[in-house]
Design goal:
The chain is mainly α and 139 residues long. 80% of the residues lie in helices and 0% in strands. The protein has a domain at 1-46. The longest helix is centred in the N-terminal third of the chain and has 41 residues, at 2-42. It is flat and about 75 Å long.
């Protein structure tokens, strides 16, 4: 009976401890979120601007961008022209022709037949026998 009471008490303590831990985690999470919120509110617009000015365009590589790059980017979002579509179709036909020629050049693959499988197993058994002859201690 004393063992049962001890087990019951241990279970209750464990449940209480788990509930307390969950409560502490929720409280700490709320405090962490509040702390982050307060920190962001403490940053003034002037501080934010000065940070971006010190590490912004030059660090991000914007100095290397010129007008032609911007025009290329804008053109890339336009639809394809008729010439582009004709060129794409021509390239696809060339690729299909090359793939067909490559398929024709390949020799037919040999299938694993029962006869070939027997040869393979026999060769494997011979190799095992040779290994045992060379080193009888191999298991």
């Amino acid at each position: 009976m004393a063992g049962f009471a001890t087990l019951l008490m241990a279970t209750k303590v464990t449940r209480f401890r788990d509930a307390e831990m969950a409560s502490m985690e929720r409280m700490l999470s709320k405090k962490a979120i509040k702390n982050i919120s307060d920190s962001w509110e403490a940053i003034t617009q002037h501080k934010m601007n000065s940070v971006w000015l010190s590490c912004g365009p030059s660090k991000a590589g914007f100095d290397e961008v010129d007008d032609a790059d911007v025009e290329d980017l804008l053109d890339s979002h336009n639809g394809l022209t008729n010439e582009d579509l004709i060129e794409l179709e021509r390239l696809q036909q060339e690729e299909m022709t090359i793939a067909t020629v490559e398929d024709a050049d390949e020799s037919p693959t040999q299938l694993l037949t029962v006869r070939n499988l027997r040869k393979l197993i026999s060769s494997f058994e011979m190799a095992m026998d040779m290994a045992l002859e060379m080193d009888p201690n191999v298991e």
